[in-house]
Specification:
The complex is a heterodimer of chains A (about 475) and B (about 110). Chain A is mainly alpha-helical and about 475 residues long. Helices cover about 75% and strands about 0% of the residues of chain A. The chains are: A mainly alpha (about 475), B mainly alpha (about 110).
Chain lengths: ~475, ~110
């Protein structure tokens, strides 16, 4: 499609425009003197998120040239991304109050949100790559956001170097796809390969999906995440581990729907490849998580495992049921993950570390935060009646239904069985954290009074808890999401 | 037998493949973070060159998609290099070294 001929309805992009305006407003407010304007910056970001969220609810659908596709999937991803971004901004407003770098922090969080919106709506490889880069650049900054802290600096360096390599490999694949098919937009690529997928295109597509695999932390592109999460401030990880995953899943679903012909997706080759990747990731994550001695590393491996389970849902494509299962899984994962990292951020401030031995006594010093942490961890583990259970149930149900059908793919059934096994192993790793915070003997306190949990954080924790409890009982959730697609 | 001239796609593809290989080699074997960063830049430049070359030879002349993509790549690569150097500087300030083996403290 010619760039000049593309008619563009920019009113479709109101959520993105609201977020971009919020970014500019924060940058401007940060230049004003005085600490009061700095403390206002997260609230400005929150306002932008609220505005964008309102625009995303029942937003009109359509295409922006051949670049972006605004459909039910986009709007669903938008709402989830904006809610998570807003939650982290709100928590930051309390936890990081009166820091001199508050403005830069808010900008980075909001930029992750904007990049995720762009990625989730991308119908062309250029905006997809740009969105992933925007997420990447902002998350590299957030990860290193502990001035002068040695581990945070090392985490940031690792993240930016490996992220850059993943991005370079992805771009190389995209340039070959462009060379072979003559198109960068998903629809054009799909039309060009409609009659058959030549091997070079398959290889190039595999390269191009590396960027997505990096954001979803799939094996073998997962290795950075435990190191990075361990060194980074827990509040930064809350957004870095949640929002990019949502965007990457939306982009992967759209890419598979548009760029890869249905005849090819429906064949067992794609399903087998995705199911195998998912099974390898989920097994690796579960077994490595049990061997960790740091709560942040355990949660990092948990993130790898959860990314793999979403991939199992995507392996069941085509069909809105599979997309809905992936979306519902992310919906149940996001509040539990955000809440767990926020609790860890509060405990990290008390104990100066998230190593399991250092967390001893947390249960008696901060009973409520510890209890909530356990609720979030149980949800991540998939214990009923919490949200995580229904999410896993939805994905496994899809995998078994598609795998056991007459023309189904056996790999889906195998991967689903492996996921069940890995979930049981991963549950043990969550119990390691529960044991460390609840059962270990408390060391003698150093007499310093505990800082009260900031009021905005209390609100975020309350919302996350309510979401985890309510989603666990919302049996009509999956069909409701399928209808929204 | 390949004949290299500025009017043939092969020449550009050959150069970009060499750049890509050099980038992968640097990114995988260098222990110094600066060397790794140079490898990354080579990877991105290989892709940018390929976009421009494919854009000139494959797509129609009225549709500069490939060239546009190459410009985007150059801009983002600059931003990424700036950020990566800032990170390396932060590491250097705390450890006085940018050797990936020597600065390594994050491990299980």
């Amino acid at each position: 499609m010619s760039l000049a001929a593309a008619t563009t309805d920019f009113s479709l992009l109101r959520p993105e425009a609201a977020l971009a305006a919020g970014l500019c407003a924060i940058l401007a407010a940060d230049l004003l003197p005085g600490s009061r304007t700095r403390n206002i910056t997260p609230w400005l970001g929150l306002l932008a998120c609220a505005l964008a969220f309102t625009f995303s609810l029942a937003a009109p659908t359509g295409n922006v040239g051949s670049m972006l596709a605004i459909d039910g999937l986009t709007n669903l991803a938008r709402c989830l991304i904006l809610a998570c971004t807003a939650a982290v901004l709100l928590a930051g407003a309390g936890e990081r109050r009166a820091r001199t770098d508050q403005g830069a922090w808010s900008v980075s969080v909001l930029a992750i949100g904007l990049g995720a919106l762009l990625t989730a709506a991308a119908a062309n490889f250029v905006p997809l790559w740009l969105g992933l880069e925007l997420i990447g650049l902002a998350s590299y900054t957030l990860v290193a956001f502990r001035g002068g802290h040695r581990l945070a600096a090392e985490a940031g360096m690792k993240f930016v170097l490996f992220g850059g390599a993943a991005s370079g490999l992805m771009l190389f694949g995209i340039s070959h796809i462009f060379g072979i098919t003559g198109h960068l937009d998903f629809v054009g690529i799909g039309a060009a390969v409609a009659t058959g997928m030549p091997v070079p295109v398959v290889v190039a597509l595999a390269f191009a999906s590396i960027g997505i695999a990096y954001k979803l932390t799939l094996v073998p592109f997962h290795f950075y995440s435990p190191d990075v999460y361990q060194g980074a401030p827990a509040l930064s990880v809350a957004v870095v581990s949640t929002v990019p995953k949502i965007a990457a899943v939306a982009a992967l679903v759209r890419g598979l729907q548009l760029a890869v012909p249905t005849s090819f997706v429906a064949t067992s080759a794609v399903a087998t490849a995705l199911a195998t990747a998912s099974a390898i990731s989920v097994l690796t994550a579960a077994f490595l998580a049990v061997a960790q001695r740091d709560a942040k590393r355990i949660l990092a491996f948990s993130g790898i495992g959860h990314g793999a389970i979403v991939l199992l849902a995507i392996a069941c494509l085509p069909g809105d049921d599979a997309t809905a299962a992936a979306g519902y899984y992310l919906l149940t994962y996001a509040p539990a993950n955000l809440g767990a990292w926020l609790c860890l951020s509060i405990l990290e401030r008390d104990h100066a570390s998230c190593e399991l031995t250092a967390l001893a006594g947390a249960g008696s010093r901060r009973p409520v935060v510890t209890a909530l942490l356990c609720v979030f961890l149980f949800s991540l583990a998939g214990v009923p009646p919490l949200a995580g259970f229904l999410g896993k149930w939805g994905v496994l149900q899809q995998a078994f239904a598609h795998g056991l059908a007459a023309d189904g793919t056996t790999a889906l059934v195998v991967a689903a069985l492996i996921t069940v096994l890995a979930t049981a192993v991963a549950a043990w790793s969550y119990l390691l954290i529960v044991r460390a915070v609840l059962l270990a003997d408390a060391p003698p306190t150093n007499g310093k009074p505990l800082l009260a949990v900031a009021r905005p954080s209390v609100v975020v924790l309350a919302v996350c808890t309510a979401a985890v409890l309510w989603l666990g009982l919302w049996l009509a959730g999956l069909p409701a999401i399928a209808r929204a697609l | 037998m390949l004949e290299f001239s500025p009017d043939r796609l092969d020449a550009y593809l050959a150069i970009s493949t060499v750049l890509f290989a050099a980038g992968v080699l640097a990114a995988t074997t260098r222990r110094n973070a600066i060397g790794l960063l140079i490898g990354l830049e080579l990877l991105l430049n290989a892709a940018a060159l390929q976009f421009a070359a494919y854009g000139r030879f494959r797509a129609s002349a009225t549709d500069p998609q490939g060239q546009t993509a190459a410009v985007f790549v150059i801009v983002v690569a600059a931003a990424e290099a700036a950020l990566a150097l800032a990170m390396l500087f932060a590491v250097y300030k705390t450890t006085r070294d940018v050797d990936l083996e020597k600065t390594r403290e994050l491990r299980s």
